[in-house]
Each structure stands twice: as C-alpha cells, then as structure tokens.
Amino acid sequence: DALVSATCVFYVRCLLLTARRQKDWRHKKTSAFVDPQRAVMRMKGDVRLMKQFFLGIAERMPALSRIVEQEFSFLSALFECLMIGSGLSTTGDIRDFVFVLHKITRNFDVTRNLIGDLYVLVAPKDEHQVRGLVGSMKKDLLMTLPDNGSQGCAL
C-alpha cells in the first residue's frame, strides 16, 4: 500500500513542480502545455493505467483495493479540476471540486494554492479568477470540517 501512496504523491508532486516552473518562468499568460486539453487527456490515461495496474495486484490482495480507490480518488478530483480548467468538461463546476479537494487537504491555503496551480498548468489566464473564487468560498470551506480546518494537509 505504500507504493500506491508513493505513486500518487509522485504524480501530484510532478504536476505541482511543473506549475511552479511555469509561474517562475512565464512572461506571457501561456499554458504549460502546447495543447492543454491533449495533455490533460494523456495524464488521465496515465492515471487510469496506474490505477488498473494496482487494481490488478489487488485481486490477489483484497485489502489493497480500498487503498487504491482512496488514493486514486484524489488524483481523479485533480483531473476533474484540470478538465474544467482546460475546457474539456462543460458540465462540471469547479466549486464542487474545491469542496472535494478541501475535504482531503483539510487546509484552506493548501486547497486555494492547489487549485490555482492546476489552473496555471491549463488556463493561466484564469488563475487569479479561480483563486478569488476559492477565496470567496473560505467561510463555507472551513465550516465543512469538524475542526474548522485547523488540521494540516492529510496527504
């Protein structure tokens, strides 16, 4: 189960490092990818392949399947945000996934920065707008946690 967690953490770390490099080096408001929609679809395929690999192993170790679902649910939520930001999802609302990610991170600043960094990757022109949106949701986000969000990131 440690390998499942490490795989997910590694993937998220690579995404966030790419976003940081993009923020540090950008002079124009351009995406980190030539074709953000294509990049998101490829990343989604990567995640699907990794999840299938671990679920294949879980057939012999049933307790592992619960961990695979839990760890990959975070990645799924991230990719829904990327799909919304890149314009691939017209039915999703970023506000719904802000709540999902906040329940996982359990920290308002981490949630706001995570969403903002995802937008840096696929829709940098909308980064400040989405950070403002998350900021406007702060009161509601803090109320969703039993301890009002005082815990750190659960990752």
Description of the molecule:
The structure is a single chain. The protein is mainly α and 155 residues long. The protein has seven helices and no strands. The chain has helices at residues 2-25, 36-58, 62-86, 94-105, 108-122, 127-136, 138-143. Helix 5 (108-122) packs antiparallel against helix 6. The longest helix is centred in the middle third of the chain and has 25 residues, at 62-86. The mean pLDDT is 86.
List the helices and strands and how they pair.
Layout (H helix, E strand, L loop, with lengths): L1 H24 L10 H23 L3 H25 L7 H12 L2 H15 L4 H10 L1 H6 L12
Helix pairs in contact: 1-3, 1-5, 2-3, 3-4, 3-5, 4-5, 5-6
Rg value: 16 Å
Broad shape: globular
End-to-end span in angstroms? Answer: 14 Å
Query: What is the number of strand segments?
Result: 0
Give the strand content. under 5%
Order of helices and strands: HHHHHHH
Structural class: mainly alpha
What portion of residues is helical? over 70%
Sheet with most strands:
none
Low-pLDDT residue spans: none
The overall pLDDT, averaged over residues, is: 86
The number of helical segments is 7
